[in-house]
Amino acid sequence: MLRYGRLEPRPDAPPATGRPLALSAPWFDETELARVREALAGRTSGDGPFCRRVESRLAEMLGVPRVLLTTSCTHALELALLALGIGPGQEVVCPSFTFVSTANAILRVGASPVLADIDETSLGLDPADAERRLSPRTAAILPVHYAGFAAPMDGLLDLALRRDLKVVEDAAQGLGASFRGQPLGALGDAGCFSFHETKNVTCGEGGALALRDRKVAERAEIIREKGTNRAAFLRGEVDKYTWVAEGSSYVLSDVLAAILDAQLDKHERIEARRAEIAARYRQGLRRWAETEGVRLPEQAPDRATNNHIFHLIFPSEAARDAKQRALRARGVMATFHYVPLHSSPFGRTLPGTRGTFPVSERVAGRLLRLPMHPLLEDADVERVIEAVTGRAA
Ligand SMILES: *Cc1c(COP(=O)(O)O)cnc(C)c1O
Question: How many C-beta neighbours within 10 Å does residue 201 have?
Answer without folding.
Answer: 25
